[in-house]
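>> received
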Amino acid sequence: MAVDFMSEAPDIIKQFLLYMQNIKGRGVKTVDEYYIDLRTFFRYINKNRGLCDSSLDFNEIKIDNVDLELVKTVTLRDTYEFMNYLLRERNNNQSTRARKTSALRQFYKYLERNHLIETNPIKDLETPKTKKALPKYLTLEQSIELLNAVEGDYYHRDYCILTLFLNCGLRLSEMAGLNYTDIRTDNTMRVLGKGNKERIVYLNKACIDAINAYKEVRPVDDVKDKHALFISRNRRRMSSKTIQAMVYKYLQKIGLDSQGYSCHKLRHTAATLMYQTGEVDIRVLKDILGHENLGTTEIYTHLSNQQLKDAAQSNPLSKIKPKNN
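>> returned
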C-alpha cells in the first residue's frame, strides 16, 4: 500500500521516519511500514480515548493531533491493549503484531535517545513470539528443471536472472536494482542490499557464462535506463513486479506455482544448496546473503537438523514394534 508520510504524518512521527531513513539507513519499504504501524497505533489511541468522532471507520481516523504531549501519555498498558485489539479485532497474526511492536519500540527509543522524553514508558514492551517456520526451497532436481524450462525471445535474460537467484541468493529488490557496472571484471558482483548496505558477491562459472551470454543480446538502443542490467521489453529497467511475474511463469511451467514458491524461495534454495551440499560455513553464508546478524542465517542449520530427523523417521525399521513374548 502506497503511503506519503511527508504529507500525512504529524511532525513528531515525520521526524522519526526521516531519522530512520536518512541516518539509520532503513529502506523505503521499512520506513513506510513504520509509518503504517504507528498510524494504526495512534488511530487506536484516538478511538480508545474518545479523541475522534465515534462514527468514523477506523481507517478514516486522522492522527494529526499526535504531538509530544499525547505521545508522553502512552503507557505500557496501552500497548498491550493495542496488541489485544490487533489480535481479536483485526485478526493480525504473530508476525504482524511483532512488526508493530518493533515499530513502537523504535519510535520510543528515538524519542528517549533525542531527549524528547525523560523516560521510555514502553521500554519493557515484549515482542510476541513468532513461529520459526522452516523456509521452503527447491531441490537440486527442481532447480535444474526450472532452468531448463526457460525459453522464448528473452531466453538469455530470463536464464541469467534465474541463475543469479539460484546461485547467489539475491533478494528480489537486489536483482531489480542491479546495474550493468555492478558486474566487475574480477568475476565479482556489487549488490546493494537492505538499508543501502553494499556487499560483494563472487560469481561462479554458471553465473559468469549466463551474464556473458545475456550481455551479447542486452538491448542498447533507446534504453530508458542505460545503467540497468536487466532491461524489459519496453526498454526500461525490469521492475521487481516484472521479474516476479517472469519467475512465476516458469515455476508454473514446472508445476510449482501453487505450492508457495516465489522469488524469495529461490533465495532460500541458493542458501540451502550452498549450506547443505557445498558445506558452506554459516558465517560465510551470512555474508553472502547480506544478513545483518547470524541469527537470521541460522534457520538453515535448523533446516539441516530437520532433514536429519526426517531421515531417521523414514527408516523402514522405525515403525517395527517388539514381538510380544
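>> The first strand starts at residue 188 and ends at 192.
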